[in-house]
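Researcher: I'm preparing a figure for a lab meeting and need a structural model of a single chain. I don't have an experimental structure, so a prediction will have to do for now. The sequence is pasted below. Please return the structure as tokens so I can convert it later.
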Amino acid sequence: MDEYKNIEEKMKKTVSVLKDELNTVRAGRANAAILDRITVDYYGVPTPINQLGTISVPEPRVIVIQPWDAQILKEIEKEIQKSDIGINPNNDGKVIRLVFPPLTEERRKELTKLAKKYGEDAKVAIRSIRRDGIEKKKAMKKNGEITEDDLKSAEKDIQNLTDKYIAEIDKLIEIKEKEILEV
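Model: Understood. Here is the structure written out token by token.
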């Protein structure tokens, strides 16, 4: 039974990673999570932007980054420009403003494709976890540790777990698509 918990834990982790990835996909509204992957070289240490200052969303399409150390403003601005978020930062010497323009139809479709790709990657990971779990059970059967019936039962249980998490992934992707396509 311990293997099931292990398999389920891995599947939960995969879904959790997918949620984090989907948070970084911009969907018309400003979301501070899109900055999570951007790091700034702060005294020789790559540091996430959210650890360098206050990030706020004062308006639906604006993110304001107010660093605690004003000297790092230029570095933050440079890293945001180098990133793939597609927003040009406005630096006024005290804060950096990221103004999100309304998404074009073309950009919405690109973001939808990206969300679907993340979903497919997660499904592949789930299926890989399923395959590994079933292979372990088959090896146990081969070694005489479990019976044929136990193997069939285990395969069914693992498949049910897989179906559950694949459905959860589909639901997450569907929600994200609606969010992206919402005008």
